[in-house]
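Recap for those who missed Tuesday's class. We walked through two folding examples back to back. For each one, the amino acid string is listed first and its predicted structure tokens come directly after. Nothing is annotated here on purpose, so try labeling regions yourself before you check the end of the notes.
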Amino acid sequence: MVAFSWEDGSVGYVVLDLLRKSCPCAFCSGEKDVFGNIYKGDTKSLSKEAAKISSFSFVGRYGIKFVWGDGHSDGIYTFEFLKHLININEKK
């Protein structure tokens, strides 16, 4: 589980497995063309290492980029998207 502390003093939590499976990169989540067709990579099962964070870095003032245990690092998790995932996690 990873914790996020926000400027307003609130704290939110996301299970690592949910965070990894929600990767917003084009390969994992897909991207739309002008006609609304979604293109993405083949779905594959993830190893246990895939849900471990090796490192992270901030991207500008709007998001975080994680490097996962399986080497994947393409997704940029915006702070808005992370708050959405926290809400999903809290409903479970």
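Example two. Treat it independently of the first, because the proteins are unrelated.
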Amino acid sequence: YKALVQAGAIIIDVRSPQEYDGRHIKATKNIPVNIIQREVASIKKMGKPVITVCQSGARSGMAKGILKGAGIEVYNGGSWFGLRSKI
């Protein structure tokens, strides 16, 4: 994941705003999984690979499926806490 981030990948935290406000990886975008579908066009416009994260990896997996279905290069980073130590 480190190489992806260094190459400009965007990390999207798909947890709720309340969870995100608690703690998160610096320089991530918070787009909750329940609204990610309506944000697909703006995410696609960024033209960069995306790494999704959440609390455990389940919601980020769902978000990955939605984004991948829209033709976006996307990776499930799993838990934000676990990914934090890998980038």
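Answers for example two:
Residues 58-69 form the longest helix (12 residues).
The mean pLDDT is 97.
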